[in-house]
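Q: Predict the assembly, please.
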Amino acid sequence: MNRTTWDLWVGIFVAVGIAAMIGLAMKVGNLTSTHLGPTYRVYAYYNNIGGLKVRAPVKSSGVVVGRVADISFDNKKFEALVALDIDTRYQFPKDTIAAIFTSGLLGEQYVGLEAGGEEEMLKNGDKIEQTQGAVVLEKLISQFLYSKASESSTAPSAKSENKTVE
Amino acid sequence: MLEHLNTSLRGIGHRVIDRMWRLGVATRFFITALALSGESLRRFHLVIKEIYFTGVLSLIIILVSALFVGMVLGLQGYNTLQKYGSAEAVGVLVALSLVRELGPVVTALLFAGRAGTAITAEIGLMKATEQLSAMEMMAVNPIARVVAPRFWAGVISMPLLAALFSMMGVFGGYLVAVPLIGIDDGAFWSQMQANVDFHEDIVNGVIKSCVFGVACTIIALFEGYDAPPTAEGVSRATTRTVVNSSLAVLGLDFVLTSFMISP
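A: Predicted assembly structure:
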């Protein structure tokens, strides 16, 4: 097959185009950082998962150690069942606490693991017993408002009691 | 009065039926081009020659406009984001808007203007000078010999051009944000990498540009193939190529985005 200069230019074009795609994946996207090795799966029940999404990171001390694999609703316990895929390089004790945190004030939600002190480690298919659901901002605000309201309603009565004592 | 209404209604009906007719012919043309593309893929040097004309020669306009689009995005994004104290997020803004939307869409619009018009004019002139009829006389199917290689060249070129556009745009945004404004280099890239997802953003952008490549190229080819064989006919067909391609790209963009964004 005889070569032409077109072939050269098209070859360069295709090579640069594919390089741009790989560059987008590596430099711009998170293809490299999301890569996990072989994983094991553990489960956790939550009363409220807030805005947690599938593929959200699982962090321990701020380091990504896994990903949220699946979120479903358990219709017997009426709680959310979250499956976590954790890298096999990282082993956690059985009494690890899995809490849902928010990064920053309005950031994305992630599962934070806090290692316990037990000798035995979590295995594939295990259940994390100690969990803490997402903090719902509305609940916090309403609790705060209720406590303020009860304070202000008890305060005058306390004063009047004081007066009667005098 | 009634006579007037009658003729105007008849005119509208005639136009609608004519459009439907053209749409049907275009669909048949598309299917025929796909069915006859086996030969052009076997004689791949035909496709390579067309990739040179549609892809390689479009590089300069794509790269220069990408650089400026990225720089403008950097400036505008910084201007708004610094009010909220999150100027480092300008990298995320530039990368997401380029990879998701602007890369595929602006590339397709530029492609329609740069390569689509050339395809339409070339095929229209081939038809006007009866080269296509001459091919038929020699028992060469013009759709297999002329249309199919150009179609595949467009479909192959578009995703590569869009990827280059996005990459160059991100570089333009980087140029404005880091050396010019002075945002921290590490924060710029790490925020971008943390928030741009490979599957949801980059792969979807590539899928979009593939679809736009099919739409732009087939519209350009059909308008050229269907053009009346006169100077005026070819010029009108070229105009229609740009108008129809742009509308098709923007409409398809909405449809594809609504498919991709739904959780």
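The first strand of chain A starts at residue 39 and ends at 46. Chain A has two helices and eight strands.
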